[in-house]
Write a structure and sequence with these properties.
By secondary structure, the protein is mainly alpha-helical. 55% of the residues lie in helices and 1% in strands. A three-stranded antiparallel β-sheet has the order 1-2-3.
Length: 588
Amino acid sequence: MTTVLFPRLDPMLPWLAGESLFSLCSRHHRLWGHGLSARSTEIMFGHRRLGTQHDFPSGLDAFVVRTEHQLGSAYEIARDKTLLKFYRTFLADAEVGNIVATMRGPTVAHLKFRLGLLTSRFRANHPLKACLACMREDLLEAGWVYWHLIHQYPGVWLCPQHLVPLHVSTVKSTGVERFLWCLPSEAQLVECGASSSAASLEAQFRLTNLTIALVDCNAADGWLNADAVQEALRFQLLARGWLTPAGNARLSVAAADYLQHCAALRGPEELNGLPSTLGEAKAQLGRIIRPLRSGVHPLRLLIAIDWLFGGISEFLAIYQRVDKPGTVDEAVVAPDGLNEDRDNLRARLGALMAAGASATNAASQVGVDVGTAMAWAAASGVQVARRPKVLISAVRQSIVNNLRIGADKSEVARSHGLSISTISRLLRTEVGLHAAWKVARFETARSKARGAWQAVCTAQLGAGPKMLRAMDPASYAWLYRNDRAWLTDHLPEKGTDGAAARQGSVRWDERDMLLSVEVEQAAERIAVRTGQPLLQLWQIYQAVPRLKPKLRALDRLPLTKRALERALAPRRSRAAMDLFADRDTRTK
C-alpha cells in the first residue's frame, strides 16, 4: 500500500517563488510541529536518514511516490529545486543524467567527489545562506521565511534584490545538526565575512549578477562548456596583450591584475581559495589558461569571466565565436540583436566563401579575423582553399599525418622547421584534425601509462598500492583521473605493503602553528559572545571550518591539540575572576 505524505483533508504546501526542496521540506516539518526532524523525514522519504542533504538530496523517488507526484517528478525536482540547477549549466547531458539517477536512489555518497568539489579549494559544504531583508519581506508576503535557491549558488554572496551581503547558517553545512530540517532564523545566522567596502560590494555584485544570469538562462545542460570558456578567456587575454602570438601567457602582468581582482572578492570562507599572493595567482591562472587535463570548478571559470570581460554581453559575443552556434538562447541573457548580429556575420561569411571568395577576403569584408573565419568554416565542415605559402602541399600533408597519430605539436614544428603557432593554426582550421589529434594523444598517453604501471607491478611483486604509487606517481595519477576502472582492476590487494608508507610533503609544523592560533582566537570570540563557561567542540570547528578534517590527525598537531584542550576546559566567568581579584586586594 502506498503511503502518501498528507491525508486527503490536509493539502500539501505549494512551492514558493524560487524555493529549494530543502526549504519546502523544512516548512512541512515546521507545519507538523514534530519534535524530531527524523519523524518528518520518515514521513516524507520513508527513512529517517534519507533526503536530508540541503544541496544534493537523496531518495527523490521515494519523495515523489509519497507526495503522489503533486510537487513534480524526481527529474524536475533534482534539476530545478536543488543545487544541481547551478552545476548542470557546466555539465554534459550524460553526467547530469548520472547525478539525477544518484539523487533518486538511497545514497549520494561520493557524488561531490565525482564532481571534483572536494579538491577544488572552494569547499564542498555549500553553506545555507539567507538575506535578512528577504526574510522580513517573505514573512509579510508569504507568511513564511524560507531558503531561496539562488542565494545558495556558489559565488553568490550578495542578495541580488536588496544588494546586501548574505548571512550564513551555523547548522547543516558545518556538520552540526546535519539531519535537521530548519528555516532561516536570525539566531542561527552569522555574517559571511565579506568586506563592506565599496570595492568589495561592487565586485560581489558583478559576480552575483553574472552567476545568476548564466545559470538561470533556461539554456540546455552543459551549454557553458569548459573548453569553450577557456578559449574565450584566451581570446580576451590575447586582446589585452597578455598572450603571445605563440600562445604563451605573460603571467607576471596578467597574474598581478588577476590577484587585484580576486582581492576584492576574498572574505567569505568559500572564496578564500582564491589567490592571496602573486605566486598563487600565477599558479591558478596558469591552470585556467593551459589545456584542461581534468575538471575545473565552475566558480573558477565564473570568476575568470568576471575578471576579463566587461559584462555578460561581451563574454557571450566572444564565447559564440569559439563554441558551436545555437548552444544557448542569448536572448535570455544578452541584449536584443546579439543573436541576429552573430547569425548575420556567419551567413555573410558563408555566402562570400560560397561565391568563391578566399578566407582572407571574406573575413575582411565581414570584419572578423582570418583565423576566426577559417575556424567557423572548419566547424561547419567546410574545407577552406589554401594558398601554399609556408606549408606547401607535401609538407602540409606530412604534418597532418603526424598530427593524426598524436604527435606533439612542438616536435612536429621542430621537425618541419615551423613555429608552434603555425601548427596550432592548422590543427584548428583543418576539418576534424583537432578531434582526431586529441583522441590519438589520449590513446597514446593511456597506453604509456598502462604499460608503465604494469611494469612497476611486475618489478615489485608483493608491494602494496601505496608503495607502487610512490614508485610511479605520474602513471598512477594519470590512470586515476582518466582510466580508473582499469587501474582498479590492476591494483594489488590492500595491506600487502612491505615498507612504510611514503611520507607526505605537508608542513605539519607550520600547519599546526597557524591552526592553533585560529583555535585560540575562535575560542576567545565564542566565550565573549556567548558568556558560556564551557565550550563545545562543535562550536570551535564551526568557527574554524578547516579544523574538522584535522581532528583525526591531532597526533601530528600538538599545539592545536593543547589549544583545544585549553578551550574545552571549564573556565571561570569574567565576573568571578574580578570577584576573586577584589578579595585578593582586600586580603593584602
